[in-house]
Amino acid sequence: MYPRLCEGKIHELHMQTAGACNVSPINMHLTTSSSDDLQVLPTELLSHLYIGDERHSTNAVSLNRVGITAILSVSTSGADKQFPEFVYKWIPIHDNVSENISAWFQEALLFIDFIRENGGKTLVHCKAGVSRSATICIAYLMVYKSFSLDQAFDFVQSKRSIVAPNLSFMQQLSEFERLLLATNTRSSYMTSSPSMTPLLTCAKTSEVSGQQGTLGNCFVF
Prior knowledge:
CATH superfamily: Protein tyrosine phosphatase superfamily
Largest sheet: 5 strands, mixed
Shape: globular
């Protein structure tokens, strides 16, 4: 349905588009039904990157089954359950058009790739696995796989059919693409600066590359 619902191409979306639509993207997320709703396992996008909803983040058996070692929660509420074997990162944003999710892109993308470099796998989730988590995963593909926005969106949607970032998030992704094309920004997202070094913020141990105690389970950049 979205993002090509009103104007067709992603790059033709504008803020006034929201007023032309009869269905609010936010409300749509609450009513969308799909076979994905019954899915026990999160959706694999890449060998080290999975997308899912809040339920996936609290099912340790399923997470271990696919080899998840880190959980990136893009939500205003922390997970009800946290397990000592996983590395956690929390990005506290709402799924609405007033949020600046792009301000979190570098932090989120560096975290995902930091886990990959240590031989781990990250689950990116939000409440429903539709908007916020999809936005982060799309941005990751645009940087680390050099996908265009259209390519990244289509790729993620082909794996998880219900994904639909809200209009504002899509516009921010479109602006992000223009930034990547106009400058050498992509390289800066792939290399952490001293101020973006991962810092241990709690003492619990976890397994990232198979070594117990390698990393703690709460990280900030």
